[in-house]
From TrEMBL, chains A, B:
GO cellular component: cytoplasm
Subcellular location: Cytoplasm
Domain Aminoacyl-transfer RNA synthetases class-II family profile: 146-552
Keywords (A to Z) from UniProt: Aminoacyl-tRNA synthetase, ATP-binding, Cytoplasm, Ligase, Nucleotide-binding, Protein biosynthesis
Family annotation (HAMAP family): Asp_tRNA_synth_type1
Gene Ontology molecular functions: aspartate-tRNA ligase activity; ATP binding; nucleic acid binding
Name the UniProt record assigns to this protein: Aspartate--tRNA ligase
Binding-site residues, L-aspartate: 174, 220, 445, 486
Family: Belongs to the class-II aminoacyl-tRNA synthetase family. Type 1 subfamily.
Amino acid sequence: MLRTHTCGELRLEDLDKKVILSGWVQRVRNKGGLAWVDLRDRYGVTQLIFEEGAVAPELLKTATTLGREYVVQAEGVVIERASKNDKIPTGSIEIRVSELKILNKAKVPPFIIEDETDGGEELRMKYRYLDLRRNVVREKLQLRHRMMQETRKYMDGQDFMEVETPVLIKSTPEGARDFVVPSRVHGGEFYALPQSPQTFKQLLMVSGFDRYFQIVKCFRDEDLRADRQPEFTQIDCEMSFVDQEDILEIFEGLVRHLFTKVKGMELGEIERMTYEDAMRLYGNDKPDIRFGMPFVELNDLAQGKGFSIFDSAELILGINAEGAANYTRKQLDALTNWVKRPQIGAKGLVYVKCNEDGSFKSSVDKFYSQEDLKAWAEKAGAKKGDLILVLSGSEKDTRKQMSELRLKMGDELGLRDKSVYRPLWVLDFPLLEWDEETARYHAMHHPFTSPKKEDMELLDKDPGKVRANAYDLVINGVEIGGGSIRIHDKETQQMMFRHLGFTEEEAQSQFGFLMEAFEFGAPPHGGIAFGFDRLCAIFGGTDSIRDYIAFPKNNAGRDVMINSPSSISDEQLVELSLDIKLKE
Amino acid sequence: MLRTHTCGELRLEDLDKKVILSGWVQRVRNKGGLAWVDLRDRYGVTQLIFEEGAVAPELLKTATTLGREYVVQAEGVVIERASKNDKIPTGSIEIRVSELKILNKAKVPPFIIEDETDGGEELRMKYRYLDLRRNVVREKLQLRHRMMQETRKYMDGQDFMEVETPVLIKSTPEGARDFVVPSRVHGGEFYALPQSPQTFKQLLMVSGFDRYFQIVKCFRDEDLRADRQPEFTQIDCEMSFVDQEDILEIFEGLVRHLFTKVKGMELGEIERMTYEDAMRLYGNDKPDIRFGMPFVELNDLAQGKGFSIFDSAELILGINAEGAANYTRKQLDALTNWVKRPQIGAKGLVYVKCNEDGSFKSSVDKFYSQEDLKAWAEKAGAKKGDLILVLSGSEKDTRKQMSELRLKMGDELGLRDKSVYRPLWVLDFPLLEWDEETARYHAMHHPFTSPKKEDMELLDKDPGKVRANAYDLVINGVEIGGGSIRIHDKETQQMMFRHLGFTEEEAQSQFGFLMEAFEFGAPPHGGIAFGFDRLCAIFGGTDSIRDYIAFPKNNAGRDVMINSPSSISDEQLVELSLDIKLKE
């Protein structure tokens, strides 16, 4: 090795050792015949010292002229530092250098390589390899590494077999848009990249693999958003001979294991909530339960008192912001403007302050007596000093708007502490959801999810009411995993495709192999998949999944570092039997 | 769970326990009021017993009518078996069943699901999920799972960080043909699937990640052969601040770890050989060293004696097949025909039998005296009872042919025992190889491999003579890994591209980002990649990598199970700005 030690490991115990270190020049200082160089590698920083008299004059000169990010190899002796730095583990020692070799020079980097940088996002994306040199960025990928290793340890310990499923598969119209790969050998035909290994993992259950997992890249050609990438990583799992409870237990175990091993935290009980309750109480199928502030319906108390906005509303919802009665006029105006923004879309905001003297002050005092407001407060569980916020309108919009307002108030009141983790299982999702655009039902989870036995009779009468054996794991308001007990017989699967508007021929051509497999002895089975990028981001305490991906693409799906996508040669196009035909 | 135990875990200690098992019906037998069912899952087989009188008559009837591969759940009590079966771990007990539930029926499978099957390859590929039910097939994937877990344990223990590199990258003309992925958002542009994460792992070294690994899917759109798949898996590794010796050591460690943990074998010393010696002694850059039989050059002894074939040959090579003097006329004729097959292409085969009485019998007795032949035998190290085989012709062809013949003789003489493992490092590969077709040099490894310092001066004078800091790991004649110390400065990299016939513009547009990265402080680094599918096959003792892939493609690159590749819709083509233009 071009080193005897890393830049992170020498301590006072190593005094007088002759060592060789290699790394990057973080910083050079010199003063009165002395020069110091902070040498950095992945493992830490160690100070090199060059003393006039003690070293050859050329060496001192070389040291003082080293540029930032030069790669050097230094040989010397470990000595005790005069002024110790207790902020870094190596801060008690330094290396008195006797030999120094420049292994590679460096141009001045386009942005500062420190925890705080002056580089804008596009610049840091273009020079991602330099951004990755910053400790705060590399540590995120180290966290990801740890999460991967610990996930595998747990899964292996639970007898799950890691099986790689193919990347070159078949395009199906179900779900999001596929990325496709033209076949050269079979001109005019295409492979598709998997959106998930769903059908393959189900086939592995038919194969009797019993417990399968994989940490696997998946692909979706969707229009990108801040937290979406065209390629993303999933922890993908499937088990046989289980019911929902078994799956929840095994994967609570995984989440617990990760918190213990990676964050040193013991999770308490993981709460559970039905989809129905989540929507009723929080207007959201992934509620953040780090704080309460549940919705209360005020229709019965607030209608018929002459306030026409409420009287004509389908739904009137209140939340109680504890201790927020001290919100100023200005703060309340800001909140009102906030809910009226197009992204939220509320018409207005009603508030009720529960004053310390027991009286109430509201924005609708004209219509409601103190008695009326007291009844609201009682229903909302509001006490002196609390602030009730009320939205109204159509049922669907109001729940959505109130969910946003609740999260906003959680933020404003400091109830969404990133160091607190409150996982939640959301259960009993609907099987189908109505899609206005195509005027048909879509599978809420995917077409392989089984309906609850007790709801089967509703499937023809009232399909939207049928609940599925489907579950999501939510942490702090972020969905990090979801799964279901699957259909495992051909008849139910065919019926499901029928309800989703597939013709028999379509179902057969796209999923015939799966339905045929079900005829050869398919066991009851179910599974789950976790969004691994997002899981890492949650563990790391940040919102952007992109930070946890070594080489992410930008919002236009472009890798600006290698400049991809790019054009290919005419020969390649001919070989692939393709012509480019740009849209107008 | 739909079971209390698996079908592989009950023993005599469990007598009288009330248990529930779930699994597949392997076999049903019945005789005089008794029925037995072998119930199978991933973990083993357990016998169920149904006794007339002891169970309800319907139950006995159900049991006798169960079809093969039905999925059933059986409840009952563990009892001791009257006639024990010591071939299976559960063979001392059986389950006296009190309740039986058919979880799913099964059609008669298209082939027998036992270790020995009657299914042909295409049929088993189409119903791969049924083939995977066979123990012998599933065990191969269990081995693969174990190999993955142990590889990660070792690498993690050596401070390597697992980093996922992108799958959607950029097409480059270097190397094999890329699979490409049309971009919808950037019409007319394409991503490419990686042939390896080479440039990304080098960038991670520039980022200071120090030690990187990944078990990663790679893609090559090449014409397929029996042991090639369009998608394959690599253990991909890179390290900074190392020289070749460090890499050999770390990865000998990996191979040792895998042999110990997965096969319970301790490997001895791993031998090393230069490329030059490998070619000279075995005509092969991946020699099988489970046996000797090195080449000896006989030009000096065999030329000038009137045998025109030898006299006009560039090279005359012999090998000594120990103990094979008893080969019959028929066997020798068969060998001669074998070397004359077009795949081998030799013109003929000369043999010399070293008889037990000290005399020699050869196919060229007309031209060579006993003294002549004795000299050959001495040079070849042949003793009484041995057989010398001689080929001649051009240097290149003869080495290649003799390499094949040597392996063939190794097989015939039983010297290639699959339970014996002899790994070998082949070192000092040439940097470049001349390509007749394009009349230019190609990188033997890849264009990022560094030349040996001491050979640098040859680069302009005699490029074919320059040796690289490149190494392959070979086990039993199979190349399972290869790597190199990389170039880490822009100038050398540019020079290398020049030697490979890149214009400056081509080098810049394809690898500009890498050369720019080298300017910002790139550390000396090197790495290696192992063919994971092949490594698993070697460990499993079989030749076909396809057996170690859960869902492989056939020789035409087709997945016959899901029927892929396939056509996509016209809407998809329009969205992707593509037209299909089939070749004539």
